[in-house]
Amino acid sequence: MSGAWGAFDRWVARGPFTATDLGRYRVLFAVLLLLTPSRFTWVAPFPDSFVKGPPGPFMLLRAVPPREVLVALDLLVLLAAGFLLLGLFTRTASVVVGLTLLTGNGISYSFGKIDHSIFLVLVPLVLVFARWGDAVSVDALRRRYRQDAPATGPAPAPPQWPLRLLALLVGLGFLTAAAPKLLSGWLSPATQAVQGVMHTQYHVNGRTEFLAGTFLDVRSVLFWESVDVATVLLEGLLVLAVLNWRAWRIGIAVATLFHFGVLLMMNIGFAANVFTDAAFVAWGSLRLPAVRALPRRWLARYGWAVAVAVGAFAAFRPEEWVVPRQGQLIVLLGALVSAWYLLRQARALLRRGRPGSRAPQPVHDEAAAAR
Amino acid sequence: MPTPTARADAPTRAVRLVFALAVLALPAQVAIRHVASEPYPGLYQPSFGGVPLAGREAVTTEASVTVEFAGGATRAVGVEEVLPPTKVLPRFVFTRGFGTQERADDPRTVAWLRERVATLDERTATAVDVRWQRVGYSLDDGSRRVVEETSHVRVDLGAAP
User: Is B119 buried (19+), middle (13-18) or exposed (0-12) by CB count in 10 A?
Assistant: First the structure.
């Protein structure tokens, strides 16, 4: 038993993620939050009789919260996102973002529909334990100035177990989507479930863009049954890929392409999932130009004012100042990154299999030790 | 020699506990969903449960909404017209308010609906009629047909002044 625990401890501690990977992802995550318009105030005009919270803490909700509370929740998310962007008081900001999103979403989901964006809530609450504020952050600058340490040198490797935990939670989430499909006959050759879902999305929810019209005309039973089977297999087996970081990255790349397919076919953009998967990208390996003109000492002292200003601007900007089709854009970008990654993996695999080829090269930064 | 378990420090034990809770949360959520409904917070992802097909038709449930005015005139309105803008699919919110006669009869719902309908049409509305229908869309030509009316909800908005 002790050997098993030891193996488990080593497994959760293994990983390729650097402080820069996580720091850059934190910045992207904050930008996403800041660009997303008001989340919670839509419930304000409804009567209390519409409120019936799902099982959990929101069962206690009996009335629509006052508009001021909803506005405050929106504002709190964005102010905390301003601090996340700069990486200032990162731990506090992460917890505030996570708990405020959880609360606001819980209120929104008490009106009859749970939108499945739980991973966006989990990201800050889990990655705060990976110290995602250790790099690309004002926190790091302040620490350096406080200790009077030299300005160079990478941040120490962050704990890897939070990434493994996040991967496990994503994998289990996918499993919850697979199980009802499996139990309700998606694998039966007599029925083509995706075809039925696509038609209802098209006609009932008006999701008629991109390739929806084209797929509407596809009558091949073999095609639709293959999509049913592929969906259940992907959602059901992704959790197994958690065991190995390379398998996990390949798995989520395939999942992201799957989300892109759903976007093209049913116009549903699971941006929250794609953005969560982005936590596992080696952002630190991107070569970015160094910003030398950054007023680092000034930021270390007055960064809080910048964070507040950014958050307040995001909260009070004109409603029409939004990125058009933001969610769809995220899914598209995720698909491009995933396709690039999978092609790179395939190329490395082919090279390895060629007779007389040289010793295999690691296909990404994690190498064998990180598996 | 102490075993790794014996040597496990508090952070290591905490990490083990967190992973164990993550795994155990799954059957707990499944049980809650089975007994009541989908919990939140929870790890659930969209399941699109069930196969929404009956023969060569994609089937779904829709609400046919009609506003009745003093003097007998009527007007068909969409679910999206009745509701203020929502951040979730409107038909689910509409179902929450008007899925059953009991819910629709709530005085708070009736008062709210009276105000909403007044913003849609300047005539004096006396009632809102909601017919829940099972609807089929042909996979072959997209044509729509009402398979059956599953329930009928009527909201009396009060006598015309």
Answer: exposed
Q: What is the pTM of this model?
A: 0.93
Contact A49 B59 (CB under 8 A): no
CB-based contact, A196 to chain B, within 8 Å: yes
Task: Check pLDDT > 60 for residue A308.
Answer: yes
Q: Encoding tokens for residue A313?
A: 């601007």
Side-chain-facing half-sphere of A339: CA atoms under 13 Å: 11
Partners of B48 on chain A (C-beta within 8 Å) are 181, 193, 197
Q: What is the pLDDT of residues A221-251, one digit of tens each?
A: 999 999 999 999 999 999 999 999 999 999 9
With a CB cutoff of 8 Å and minimum separation 6, the contacts of A292 are none
Average pLDDT over residues A259-286: 96
3-state helix vs strand vs coil in chain B, percent to 5: 40, 30, 35
B127 interface with A at CB cutoff 8 Å: no
**A188 neighbourhood in chain B, CB within 8 Å:** 51
SS3 labels along B82-132: HCCCCCCCHHHHHHHHHCCHHHHCCHHHHHHHHHHHHHHCCCCEEEEEEEE
CB–CB of A141/A301 below 8 Å?
Answer: no
CB A269 within 8 A of CB A259: yes
SS3 A327: helix
Q: Give the tens place of pLDDT for each residue, B79-135.
A: 999 999 999 999 999 999 999 999 999 999 999 999 999 999 999 999 999 999 999
The pLDDT value recorded for residue A289 is 86
Does residue A67 belong to the interface with chain B, where contact is any CB pair within 8 Å?
no
d(CA A70, CA A40): 6
Q: What are the two backbone dihedrals, phi and then psi, of residue B57, each rounded to the nearest 5 degrees?
A: -125, 140
Residue of A nearest to B98 (CA): A50
CA-based nearest residue to A159, from A184, A129, A182, A138: A129
Structure tokens that stand for A330 in this block? 């995220």
Residue range A366-371: mean pLDDT, rounded:
45
Q: How far is CA A278 from CA A32, A53, A175, A176, A331, in A?
A: 12, 31, 19, 21, 11
Using CA atoms, how far apart are residues B138 and B126, in angstroms rounded to an integer?
Answer: 36
Under 8 Å CB-to-CB from A362, ≥6 apart: which residues?
A368
Two tokens, residue A172? 């289990």
Q: How confident is the model at residue A369 (pLDDT cuts 50, 70, 90)?
A: very low
Residues A61-67, mean pLDDT to the nearest whole number: 98
